[in-house]
Amino acid sequence: MNLTGQTLDTLDFSIGEYPPGVSEYLPGYGFFTEIVTEAFKAEGIEVNYSFCPWARVWLNITEGNSDGSLGYLWNPEREEEVLYSKPIWDMSFSAAFCLKEKTFHISKPDDLMDYKVIIQRGYSYGANVDQYLASDKIDYCVVETEEQAFKMLILNRAEFFLTNNLNGLYTIQTFFPEENTFTYYSYDPTLNGASFHMVVSKKHPRSRWIIERFNSGLEKIKSSGLFDEISADYLPHS
Fold it and tell me: What is the block-wise mean pLDDT of the chain (238 residues), using blocks of 10 residues?
């Protein structure tokens, strides 16, 4: 880690587990991490990563033991302590996946009452849908894994599988790479609009410089097509 006024050629980031965005067990340490690595590389900067629990990651950032981290959603409390980069990925937490061959009109939680849906054990789907599920206003079945859910869609056991767009698309790419079968609708617009960012402590003496370099590099890899190439390794081709 370099906290001096010298030119930064290497940065040390702390990160945790949030596959497929960030993971010690994926090539390049995951989708988000590869984007960050290549964005800084475009600016002539190398990034080293160390993994630890997310609570420790936050302490490392705010206590000055790390140059930054990635995979953070914006919230007002965190913004008091860190600077946020441009978005790495825009997230939809209300993705209702279905077969492309079928036509649906889904735009709000009430619309799900007309269909059978698949949910994953232990997940929350927003206050409205959680309430409907608890009161059996929505017909549903429960699975343990996303792979099971998509197989059930193929077998027409239900119309929709509720998840988020990142995990859903990654599951399709991992287990159904040859399929051009699925699409998704947003079932609750209030759960959308979130995005994942890189963050740097405001106390870091080069915080704005680091953010500016990343934002510049991100634009470069988007313009060159590299961003889309990395995305294609994790998500289905459009």
Answer: 55 93 93 97 97 94 95 88 95 91 91 96 86 95 94 97 92 87 91 87 96 98 96 75
**Sequence letter at residue 1:** M
- For residue 20, cis peptide bond before it (omega within 30 degrees of 0): yes
Angle among Cα 157, 146, 72 to the nearest 5 degrees reads 140
Give the list of residues 6+ apart from residue 75 with CB closer than 8 angstroms, or none. Answer: none
| Backbone dihedral angles phi then psi of residue 49, each to the nearest 5 degrees | -125, 140
- Supply the pTM of this predicted model: 0.77
DSSP 191: G
Residues in a beta bridge with 162: 96
Residues facing residue 204 across a β-bridge? none
Among candidates 232, 219, 195, which has minimal Cα distance to 39? 219
Domains of the chain: 10-90+195-234 (3.40.190.10), 95-187 (3.40.190.10)
Cα separation, 57 vs 62, whole angstroms: 9
Q: Residue 5 has what pLDDT?
A: 44
